[in-house]
Amino acid sequence: MINNIFAFGDSFLSGHGVNFSDNWLSVVERKLSIKVNNYAVSGGSNKLSIIKFFEQLEKITADQNNLVLFAWTSPVRTTFYNIDNATWENVQLGHYYTDQKVRQRVDEYYRQYYNDYESYVDFYQQQLLLTEFLKNKSIRYFYMNSFFDAAFGPAVANDKHYLEKFISKDNYLLDNRSIYEVVCLEQKMTCNDRFHPSEQGHTWLADYAIDFFKKNSII
What we know:
Elements: E1 4-8, H1 11-14, H2 24-32, E2 35-38, H3 46-55, H4 57-61, E3 66-72, E4 78-82, E5 87-91, H5 100-113, H6 116-136, E6 140-145, H7 154-164, H8 179-186, H9 199-215
Parallel strand pairs: 1-2, 1-3, 3-6
Antiparallel strand pairs: 4-5
């Protein structure tokens, strides 16, 4: 049994396009009467989710009956520490930022440093490191994928297949496929932006997650 759920991810967990009370994690909370601590951030990067995970680590490890849900998102996104504001600044390729210093830093990063190969290798290394940490601390967890927005090149694909061998597929909801692929494309349940799940899609996903928990003897 689980007492609390700690969720980390992006807009597919925070519920972009629907009321927060209607997102699938809120539905799970109501149906199971289990506290869900949702730390997902719309547009959030994997780095930001990992930062938030470690910020909550003391609470997570306080009860062995806690569960972590972690949704992986686009490797194109990243997070910088904004020294002026003393906060983490989440950024994404193609987005406009009103803060001039942030915009300059983002432009420089994507022009000078970013490339698909390193970002995708880093993406899988993050999964391996987090997975081993969770196992070492005996923290129960399940992963999800939100979406992938870029094709794998030949070199990236080779590393992807190699690195994925070390990640247990049993710990993935939706069989390692993305929420976007399953709910939005296959189930055709999208909100007005035609990219994120609709309220109906969130209900479907909540029911799927509850059935998944039952099959895995979590509830």
